[in-house]
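Structure record:
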Amino acid sequence: MKIIFLLFLAALTPAIRAQELAPQSASADEAAAVANKLMTSLFFRGEVADKILDSGEAGRLVNLDGVETNAEARGLLITWIRRNPDKAAQLYLNLKGAGGKVHTAIETREMTWEFNPAFLEAIKALNAAAGSSSVSREAMEIAARRLYGGSREEADSPVIKDGGGKAGGKGLKREDFADYRLNRDALGAELSRAAGWMDAARPEAVRLNLGGSYGAALSIYQEFVVAAASLKGRAAMTALESERLETLRSALRSSLGALALRARIAELAAAEAALTAARGEPGSAALLAALGKLRAELEGLAAQAESGRAGAKEVAGLVNAAEGKFAGVYLVYSAYDGLLSLKRRSAPGAFSCLYDYAAWRYLAAYFPGSPYPKARAELTAAAGALDGALAKAGDGDLPGALAAADPARLEAAAAQLRSSSSFYRAAQFFGWGLFFRPVELKVLPAKPRPAFRPALTIAELNRGR
């Protein structure tokens, strides 16, 4: 009996070991999350590129022949990461788990997956069909990336530290300053990043009238540049210089975070102003309330970031949380604005002239399936459906709102109605002129419709025409 029991345990041993050695889904989920973030966040790709440079493994991934600067190598790595997000995610997790050092063997897995773009494409198609100008395509794209891409920049990695380490690393970190030795290459890279941030923030600050917030960030940036310039040509720095450099770096990131919050507040205020003009439309009240609530919340976060009491890491957390909330509400507003513009553009409207009305009555009576009466009937029937879609969009039900409206079909019907009305208006003008003044009209081929002027004037008769 004991022998049978031992044999039974031996038979179960492989299954038990297999269960112990089965890969955990958590690591796969983490790798997928990192890969998704790499595909959507340029700042995160830059962070991963810096880690690869620090590890000394850049030469294994890209060709560094002829590359002389750290910025060039970083750019090549960012391109490689964008093209190979899955491999880069595995390498990033490997470096993260090994404390910044590469394992002797790196195991990577090929993963293929596809993000379903139907929802975002539906909103893009809606805005394109509606001809909406209050929500730009760039703004909607940025909101979509922020909604699905996570944080834009990690601000918790320090720049300088007193001692402990060697000064030959690629990244500007505290451990790179043993006994206050200066890593000039890393300081130059930090200055380049700061300059890039300021250049990227300037157009948004001008567009949204945020001169005060941008000016505060620019002032700190100038101090940071001056402090860095004072160390030019030196291999070491004092404790006070190290502390000031780190303080300015942290203050600059905090100021840029506050500027980002002010930009989101300005965009929400513009959206509120646009919706106020459409007060009374279905769903506008609920969406206005959501915009106002979020704007008030971001005002509080911006005041906290501008107070100076929050560190760079805390400000980054505030900005990341605000970006996620803003992106969700802004996508709802984008869809609502597109539906509202589509409703206005697709309204049948009055007839352009008597010919237009007579032609429609004739075609509707004897040829109801012809394009013109069919298009006018579709647009007349779509008014109720668009009101229902607006109500759902205002409540945040975007899938239901997009399903209730058919932007492509309505845009085609509106185009047919405009074309037919223009044709009958031109026909009436030409026909009546030909009937009452047959010798006084000359047709001029001008776009988008024919132009008319007297043909037999006294001046032309004198010239022998």
